[in-house]
Protein backbone atom coordinates (compact mmCIF):
# COMPACT_ATOMS: atom_id res chain seq x y z
CA UNK A 1 0.00 0.00 0.00
CA UNK A 2 2.97 2.29 -0.34
CA UNK A 3 1.44 3.75 -3.50
CA UNK A 4 -1.90 4.68 -1.90
CA UNK A 5 -0.98 8.33 -1.44
CA UNK A 6 0.23 8.55 -5.03
CA UNK A 7 -3.05 7.08 -6.28
CA UNK A 8 -5.08 9.51 -4.17
CA UNK A 9 -2.97 12.42 -5.38
CA UNK A 10 -3.52 11.43 -9.01
CA UNK A 11 -7.28 11.12 -8.52
CA UNK A 12 -7.45 14.48 -6.73
CA UNK A 13 -5.52 16.13 -9.56
CA UNK A 14 -7.92 14.68 -12.13
CA UNK A 15 -10.97 15.81 -10.17
CA UNK A 16 -9.53 19.29 -9.59
CA UNK A 17 -8.97 19.70 -13.32
CA UNK A 18 -12.47 18.43 -14.04
CA UNK A 19 -13.99 20.76 -11.46
CA UNK A 20 -12.15 23.72 -12.99
CA UNK A 21 -13.54 22.81 -16.42
CA UNK A 22 -17.00 22.49 -14.91
CA UNK A 23 -16.78 25.99 -13.42
CA UNK A 24 -15.69 27.42 -16.77
CA UNK A 25 -18.54 25.66 -18.54
CA UNK A 26 -21.05 26.86 -15.94
CA UNK A 27 -19.96 30.46 -16.45
CA UNK A 28 -20.25 30.19 -20.23
CA UNK A 29 -23.63 28.45 -20.18
CA UNK A 30 -25.10 30.98 -17.73
CA UNK A 31 -24.07 33.74 -20.12
CA UNK A 32 -25.62 31.78 -22.99
CA UNK A 33 -28.97 31.54 -21.19
CA UNK A 34 -28.92 35.26 -20.41
CA UNK A 35 -27.89 36.27 -23.94
CA UNK A 36 -30.50 33.98 -25.51
CA UNK A 37 -33.20 35.67 -23.44
CA UNK A 38 -31.95 39.10 -24.49
CA UNK A 39 -31.96 38.02 -28.12
CA UNK A 40 -35.57 36.81 -27.85
CA UNK A 41 -36.55 40.20 -26.41
CA UNK A 42 -34.74 41.90 -29.29
CA UNK A 43 -36.75 39.81 -31.73
CA UNK A 44 -40.03 40.83 -30.10
CA UNK A 45 -38.97 44.47 -30.42
CA UNK A 46 -38.22 43.99 -34.12
CA UNK A 47 -34.44 44.25 -33.62
CA UNK A 48 -33.64 41.17 -35.69
CA UNK A 49 -30.21 42.39 -36.80
CA UNK A 50 -29.12 42.81 -33.19
CA UNK A 51 -30.50 39.36 -32.39
CA UNK A 52 -28.57 37.90 -35.32
CA UNK A 53 -25.36 39.38 -33.91
CA UNK A 54 -26.06 37.76 -30.55
CA UNK A 55 -26.71 34.47 -32.32
CA UNK A 56 -23.21 34.43 -33.77
CA UNK A 57 -21.74 34.95 -30.30
CA UNK A 58 -23.95 32.21 -28.87
CA UNK A 59 -22.80 29.72 -31.49
CA UNK A 60 -19.18 30.53 -30.67
CA UNK A 61 -19.94 29.93 -26.99
CA UNK A 62 -21.58 26.59 -27.77
CA UNK A 63 -18.54 25.58 -29.80
CA UNK A 64 -16.27 26.63 -26.93
CA UNK A 65 -18.22 24.55 -24.40
CA UNK A 66 -18.16 21.55 -26.72
CA UNK A 67 -14.40 21.79 -27.12
CA UNK A 68 -13.90 22.39 -23.42
CA UNK A 69 -15.84 19.29 -22.37
CA UNK A 70 -14.98 16.96 -25.26
CA UNK A 71 -13.20 14.54 -22.91
CA UNK A 72 -15.87 14.77 -20.21
CA UNK A 73 -19.11 13.39 -21.58
CA UNK A 74 -20.78 13.39 -18.18
CA UNK A 75 -20.34 17.16 -17.92
CA UNK A 76 -21.18 17.79 -21.56
CA UNK A 77 -24.53 16.04 -21.20
CA UNK A 78 -25.22 17.51 -17.79
CA UNK A 79 -28.31 19.62 -17.19
CA UNK A 80 -26.64 23.04 -17.32
CA UNK A 81 -25.17 22.42 -20.77
CA UNK A 82 -28.39 21.04 -22.24
CA UNK A 83 -30.41 23.94 -20.84
CA UNK A 84 -28.12 26.52 -22.44
CA UNK A 85 -28.23 24.69 -25.75
CA UNK A 86 -32.04 24.55 -25.65
CA UNK A 87 -32.23 28.31 -25.15
CA UNK A 88 -29.89 28.81 -28.10
CA UNK A 89 -32.02 26.55 -30.31
CA UNK A 90 -35.24 28.32 -29.35
CA UNK A 91 -33.81 31.74 -30.11
CA UNK A 92 -32.20 30.67 -33.40
CA UNK A 93 -35.37 28.97 -34.67
CA UNK A 94 -37.64 31.90 -33.75
CA UNK A 95 -35.30 34.27 -35.57
CA UNK A 96 -35.23 32.04 -38.66
CA UNK A 97 -39.03 31.76 -38.72
CA UNK A 98 -39.54 35.52 -38.47
CA UNK A 99 -37.01 36.14 -41.24
CA UNK A 100 -38.59 33.47 -43.44
CA UNK A 101 -35.39 31.43 -43.53
CA UNK A 102 -34.86 27.65 -43.19
CA UNK A 103 -34.46 26.40 -39.65
CA UNK A 104 -30.82 26.03 -38.58
CA UNK A 105 -29.63 22.46 -38.16
CA UNK A 106 -28.10 21.09 -34.93
CA UNK A 107 -24.62 20.99 -36.47
CA UNK A 108 -24.83 24.66 -37.42
CA UNK A 109 -25.61 25.62 -33.84
CA UNK A 110 -23.07 23.20 -32.30
CA UNK A 111 -25.72 21.63 -30.04
CA UNK A 112 -26.74 18.06 -29.26
CA UNK A 113 -29.67 16.45 -31.12
CA UNK A 114 -31.57 16.10 -27.84
CA UNK A 115 -31.20 19.75 -26.87
CA UNK A 116 -32.23 20.76 -30.38
CA UNK A 117 -35.43 18.75 -30.14
CA UNK A 118 -36.31 20.14 -26.71
CA UNK A 119 -35.50 23.69 -27.77
CA UNK A 120 -37.70 23.28 -30.82
CA UNK A 121 -40.57 22.42 -28.49
CA UNK A 122 -40.17 25.78 -26.76
CA UNK A 123 -40.58 27.60 -30.08
CA UNK A 124 -44.29 26.78 -29.98
CA UNK A 125 -44.71 29.05 -26.95
CA UNK A 126 -43.05 31.94 -28.79
CA UNK A 127 -45.25 31.39 -31.84
CA UNK A 128 -48.32 31.48 -29.61
CA UNK A 129 -47.17 34.82 -28.26
CA UNK A 130 -46.85 36.14 -31.81
CA UNK A 131 -50.29 34.79 -32.70
CA UNK A 132 -51.87 36.58 -29.73
CA UNK A 133 -50.12 39.82 -30.66
CA UNK A 134 -51.50 39.46 -34.18
CA UNK A 135 -55.02 38.88 -32.85
CA UNK A 136 -54.80 42.01 -30.70
CA UNK A 137 -53.87 43.97 -33.82
CA UNK A 138 -56.75 42.43 -35.75
CA UNK A 139 -54.41 40.53 -38.08
CA UNK A 140 -56.28 37.24 -38.26
CA UNK A 141 -54.31 36.03 -41.27
CA UNK A 142 -50.98 36.33 -39.43
CA UNK A 143 -52.39 34.62 -36.34
CA UNK A 144 -53.62 31.71 -38.46
CA UNK A 145 -50.20 31.45 -40.11
CA UNK A 146 -48.52 31.30 -36.69
CA UNK A 147 -50.98 28.60 -35.63
CA UNK A 148 -50.11 26.51 -38.68
CA UNK A 149 -46.41 26.75 -37.82
CA UNK A 150 -47.16 25.66 -34.26
CA UNK A 151 -49.03 22.64 -35.58
CA UNK A 152 -46.19 21.77 -37.98
CA UNK A 153 -43.65 21.75 -35.13
CA UNK A 154 -45.96 19.68 -32.96
CA UNK A 155 -46.46 17.15 -35.75
CA UNK A 156 -42.67 16.82 -35.86
CA UNK A 157 -42.28 16.47 -32.08
CA UNK A 158 -44.99 13.85 -31.74
CA UNK A 159 -43.02 11.48 -33.99
CA UNK A 160 -40.41 11.01 -31.26
CA UNK A 161 -41.50 8.30 -28.87
CA UNK A 162 -38.46 7.34 -26.82
CA UNK A 163 -37.88 6.65 -23.12
CA UNK A 164 -37.51 9.78 -21.02
CA UNK A 165 -34.02 8.65 -20.05
CA UNK A 166 -33.03 9.18 -23.69
CA UNK A 167 -35.19 12.15 -24.66
CA UNK A 168 -37.35 13.79 -21.95
CA UNK A 169 -39.73 15.17 -24.53
CA UNK A 170 -43.12 13.90 -23.37
CA UNK A 171 -43.75 16.93 -21.15
CA UNK A 172 -42.86 19.25 -24.03
CA UNK A 173 -45.33 17.39 -26.24
CA UNK A 174 -48.11 17.74 -23.67
CA UNK A 175 -47.46 21.45 -23.17
CA UNK A 176 -47.32 22.05 -26.92
CA UNK A 177 -50.63 20.27 -27.46
CA UNK A 178 -52.31 22.41 -24.80
CA UNK A 179 -50.93 25.65 -26.25
CA UNK A 180 -52.09 24.72 -29.73
CA UNK A 181 -55.61 23.86 -28.56
CA UNK A 182 -55.91 27.19 -26.74
CA UNK A 183 -54.56 29.13 -29.70
CA UNK A 184 -56.82 27.31 -32.15
CA UNK A 185 -59.84 28.21 -30.03
CA UNK A 186 -58.81 31.87 -29.81
CA UNK A 187 -58.23 32.10 -33.55
CA UNK A 188 -61.61 30.46 -34.21
CA UNK A 189 -63.38 32.95 -31.93
CA UNK A 190 -61.61 35.85 -33.61
CA UNK A 191 -62.58 34.52 -37.05
CA UNK A 192 -66.21 34.20 -35.95
CA UNK A 193 -66.21 37.74 -34.56
CA UNK A 194 -64.74 39.06 -37.79
CA UNK A 195 -67.44 37.39 -39.89
CA UNK A 196 -70.11 38.78 -37.59
CA UNK A 197 -68.67 42.28 -37.89
CA UNK A 198 -68.59 41.97 -41.67
CA UNK A 199 -72.26 40.93 -41.74
CA UNK A 200 -73.23 43.77 -39.40
CA UNK A 201 -71.32 46.25 -41.57
CA UNK A 202 -73.11 44.92 -44.65
CA UNK A 203 -76.46 45.25 -42.88
CA UNK A 204 -75.70 48.81 -41.81
CA UNK A 205 -74.76 49.68 -45.37
CA UNK A 206 -77.98 48.17 -46.67
CA UNK A 207 -80.08 50.07 -44.13
CA UNK A 208 -78.27 53.34 -44.85
CA UNK A 209 -78.82 52.85 -48.57
CA UNK A 210 -82.49 52.05 -48.07
CA UNK A 211 -82.93 55.11 -45.85
CA UNK A 212 -81.31 57.30 -48.46
CA UNK A 213 -83.77 56.16 -51.13
CA UNK A 214 -86.81 57.14 -49.10
CA UNK A 215 -88.52 60.29 -50.40
CA UNK A 216 -89.22 63.02 -47.88
CA UNK A 217 -92.89 63.24 -46.97
CA UNK A 218 -94.76 66.21 -48.49
CA UNK A 219 -96.50 68.52 -46.08
CA UNK A 220 -100.24 68.16 -46.39
CA UNK A 221 -102.21 71.41 -46.77
CA UNK A 222 -103.95 72.32 -43.54
CA UNK A 223 -106.75 74.34 -45.19
CA UNK A 224 -107.10 78.08 -45.45
CA UNK A 225 -105.08 80.04 -43.02
CA UNK A 226 -107.09 81.69 -40.31
CA UNK A 227 -107.63 85.41 -40.93
CA UNK A 228 -107.18 86.90 -37.49
CA UNK A 229 -108.33 90.39 -38.57
CA UNK A 230 -111.63 89.15 -39.97
CA UNK A 231 -112.33 87.16 -36.85
CA UNK A 232 -111.53 90.14 -34.62
CA UNK A 233 -113.70 92.48 -36.58
CA UNK A 234 -116.41 89.88 -36.46
Can you give a write-up of this model?
The chain has 234 residues and is an all-alpha fold. It has two domains: 13-111, Methane Monooxygenase Hydroxylase, Chain G, domain 1 (Up-down Bundle), CATH 1.20.58; 121-204, Methane Monooxygenase Hydroxylase, Chain G, domain 1. Helix content is 78%, strand content 0%. It has nine helices and no strands. The termini are far apart.
Give the tags.
single chain; 234 residues; mainly alpha; Methane Monooxygenase Hydroxylase, Chain G, domain 1; 2 domains
CATH names the topology of the largest domain as Methane Monooxygenase Hydroxylase, Chain G, domain 1
What is the strand tally? 0
Characterize the biggest β-sheet: none
The CATH level-2 architecture of the largest domain is identified as: Up-down Bundle
Low-confidence stretches: none
Bin the helical content: over 70%
The pLDDT mean sits at: 88
Amino acid sequence: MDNLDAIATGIAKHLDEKDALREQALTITREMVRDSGEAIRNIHKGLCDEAAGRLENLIRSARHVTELLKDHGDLYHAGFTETAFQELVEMACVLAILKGEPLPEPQELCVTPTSYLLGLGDVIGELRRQALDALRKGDLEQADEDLQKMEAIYDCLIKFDYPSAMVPIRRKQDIARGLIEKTRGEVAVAAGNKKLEEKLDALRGFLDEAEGKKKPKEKKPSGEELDIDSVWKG
